[in-house]
Amino acid sequence: MAKKKENWYSYIAIFNHADDGINISFPDLPGCLSCADTDEEAIRMAKSVLGLYMSQLEDDGDPIPEPTALKDIELDENDMPYLVDVFMPEARAEKVGVNFSKVLREALEDYLGEDEVLKV
């Protein structure tokens, strides 16, 4: 029996600020890495890589690690912890090339009517 897929995952990312940008890692998820030039980009990249990584773990049937508590995360100089959460239905859709926001908007337009959606 397949394990139920979760809708949300939350893990601590470490943003290491270096001279050439921000390196992103997840202490609980070896190999879940990314980089960025700004804090805003780092947040977007962290969410994206976490979604892809968790989706791959699910697809492979690998165990999902328990997140470490923030108080137990060890930081080095220039490290900053950031709690990253990812909505997995959206991440799974993006993984297969589905624009989740567009599909949701179109479904709401069908259900509520285009004029009602534009009011929101």
Task: Reconstruct the topology from this structure.
Blueprint: E1 8-18, E2 21-25, E3 33-36, H1 39-60, E4 79-87, H2 88-95, H3 100-112, H4 114-119
Antiparallel strand pairs: 1-2, 1-4, 2-3
Helix pairs in contact: 1-2
Summarize the structure.
By secondary structure, the protein is of the alpha+beta class. The chain contains four helices and four strands; from the N terminus they run βββαβααα. Helix 1 packs across helix 2.
Alpha carbon gyration radius: 17 Å
Beta-strand percent range: 15-25%
CATH architecture name: 2-Layer Sandwich
Strand runs, count: 4
CATH class: Alpha Beta
The low-confidence parts are none
Q: How many structural domains?
A: 1
Overall 3D shape: globular
How much helix is in the residues?
40-55%
List keywords for this structure.
Double Stranded RNA Binding Domain, alpha+beta, 4-stranded antiparallel sheet, single chain, globular, 120 residues
Q: Could you please describe the fold and organization of this structure?
A:
With 120 residues, the protein is α+β, with helices and mostly antiparallel strands. It has one domain: Double Stranded RNA Binding Domain, CATH 3.30.160. Helices cover 41% and strands 24% of the residues. The protein contains 4 helices and 4 strands. The chain has helices at residues 39-60, 88-95, 100-112, 114-119; strands at residues 8-18, 21-25, 33-36, 79-87. A 4-stranded antiparallel beta sheet has the order 3-2-1-4. Strand 1 and strand 2 (21-25) form a beta hairpin. The longest helix is centred in the middle third of the chain and has 22 residues, at 39-60. The mean pLDDT is 88.
